[in-house]
């Protein structure tokens, strides 16, 4: 919060004696982010971060009108900033002067034309980017919207495990994190809700696998927004977990029945306990038209009961919550996912004990030359590396080091050229090796890479070759890590 005015202002309204917060929203283009930006801009300056904004900065009020200043000189309204969260540098610049940063990002939907790497690894990279940038920019607090965790001690699904991993990573630099954990958020363009609506609309008979009996506590988008606004302003929530949920605790089958009733559809529900998650994933994807990459983590997470443990922050706010039916009636269909025609390939690699991200990056070309002696070529020096094959004189890739953006935990290289690299004047093609989770892993990330060869040919040749090579390198590193563990034992 801003500093209080001098004693001569005592007795005036608290909003007049304090500067409005500067609140950044990462994921501002999502359905939660858009609603939150509009709401919080009534009383604070919102820095809305997004990759698709048409210009670097656009100032505006909550209704799109010009932002207004107050007596302190800070502006109340929305300031939109183009920011690619896959870039630490862009994120650092965007977070300058921010008091509270709200993190609403996930990577279950593709954001590049060709994207390699699991959503868990992409989310880990993004969260680590954000934590580093927020620390560098002097952000005071982070508010994170994650997922409810089951209390029964069962192993977390990949989706929920990733949400919890992101929560931990955001706090890894010491900035206090308010973890708002929610189940299904019922609102316009919410992917989970739209899967539910599409199933009910398109299936005359509802097949109900065992996961549809799992109980959850859906919460309305408007309620989530009010809770996030409260957490941004209430410093007592810093460093605490806030489970949130609506007044209804329902099974997914009950939510489908309620959805059918609201839509005016008669849908018989037939329990089918032998349907596996894999089959569920397939038929949900076919029926709804959503990619299996989006459906899979959602289906896997449904085996857990998603019920809030303690609604302490809502009790403090006096927020009773909106019923599922009321929230459902206000919902809209989700929009198309934006895809950029570049490559992003992210892999999580084991990091041998005592080794740094720089070592993993520098070992990569050395290992590459050893796996097929005489086939791959690699010239490495203090300025970078040139990778190729013996039968072509020109290098396939030319990479240069970025020493001012690298340290022992991050080894960053620019893709400057080579026979395989295209020329995109507006892009920032780069390869990096990043230490994460206290040095347990190194993330290898090829980002914003534009191939020179035709896209269809790249997709069936260079892309799978890169993925296979990184898989093999990861296996090599796991072997080194395993050997180190044996020696310690």
Would you give an account of this structure?
This protein has 489 residues and is of the alpha/beta class. The protein has 15 helices and 23 strands. The strands form five sheets. Strands 1, 2, 3, 4, 5, 6, 8, 9 and 14 form a nine-stranded mixed β-sheet that branches. Helix 3 crosses helix 4 and helix 9 crosses helix 10. The radius of gyration is 24 Å and the shape is globular. The termini are far apart.
Q: Mean pLDDT score, rounded?
A: 83
Question: What is the helix fraction of residues, given as a range?
Answer: 25-40%
Give me the number of helical elements. 15
Q: Which segments are poorly predicted (pLDDT under 50) over 5 or more consecutive residues?
A: 1-17, 56-73, 332-340
Distance between the termini: 50 Å
The shape is: globular
Largest sheet, strands/sense/barrel: 9 strands, mixed
Estimate what percentage of residues fall within beta strands.
15-25%
Q: What is the gyration radius calculated from CA atoms?
A: 24 Å
Number of strands: 23
What would you call the structural class?
alpha/beta
